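Q: How would the structure tokens look for this protein?
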Amino acid sequence: MWVGLGWGMGYAVSPFKRQRIIEFDSRVAGVSVEEFCRQVGVSKSSFYRIRKRAKQEGPGAALVAHSRAPLHLARRWDERVDERIAQVRRELVADGKEAGAW
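A: Here is the predicted structure in token form.
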């Protein structure tokens, strides 16, 4: 039972569970994918996502979760803008004024 995790807030699937998912064959195991997922403690969407990755990238790649870091970094200011902000903050501090968060 998934309590308090919310959508998309689950835990990463362990390499051991990933290995079991990759090797699972319903004909040999004699259970459905749904029953297998219940036994292992993973969602069906995780099951199919891991199987798809194993098929596309190979079993070794599917044993490790993809990074959850953003694919693209947030847009940064131009260097000149950063330098100007630092200059204005130094001037404010020199005048005894609040320079804002650094």
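Residues 15-62 form one domain.

DSSP finds six helices and no strands in the chain.

Upvote if useful.
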